[in-house]
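Question (not urgent): is this output format expected?
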Amino acid sequence: MNLINNAILEFFVVIKFSKVDLKVKFDLNGMEKKVKLAALLVANQLDLKGIKTYLDLKPLADSSSELFYSIGADKYQYYFNYGVIVFAGHTDEEIKLAIKTVSAYLKNPSSNWMRDDHEIEVKEGEIMFEFNQVVVERLDSKVIRIAMLNIAQSVALDHYHEVTENLLTEIRGFTNQLEATGKLSINRRNMLKFIGKALNTQNDIADNIYIFDAPELVWDDEYLDRLNKGLMKHFDLRVRFSEIEYTLRIIEDNLSVFREISHQRISNTLEWIIIILILVEVFDLFISKLF
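Got this back:
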């Protein structure tokens, strides 16, 4: 009997439950269950009102910035207005189909989806955070929602980090040119467009990234609060947010210098125009005196 127990120390059984495949792992210590999470940034924005009307399902959570749905046992979908969709318990084929289903409600869809995968495993004991996995002792819609919220914020930060790095690269091009030639070739119109792009990025981050505000569902649940704080630390959300803020401050400082140079250039142009007009007036007066 001991030989048999050692031989079957670990095996997997696939259970069909409510049309959902749940992979359940058995060992001598009891039962463990894993749920896969996948967060994808698919667009610049999502039309949540359109998605809510189209899906015709009652969401578990509903606001102007997010929609949280239970699709079946351990299957959830979480839509965020800043273009991120998070799936729990879905296969890659189901994810692609779900995104295709709501494709009409993607504003400025992305050609290259940014993606982050994680996993929730249920075990007895304290909450633990590993490289691509979080271990919890209980699994319900609230736990899954907290995990999905944090992974969505992580993907959004990846996106904004890429955007700000691209802006900084453009800024470096202008500063290198300024160092080499002593001139700034960008015209006023393009500079204003660039400033508008930087400001829009800053506004998007302020509107969409709310890592400093704990979600309401953790206020009365100590376990969820510990899970949320642990996930924020696990994904380095505060550190990455601070890095993006620092990059934006550098961009803002450079743009202030560029604006001063542009204003100086305009001022010099106006001075030359005034000088030319005065010379024309003097010349005209001189000609009138002679003739």
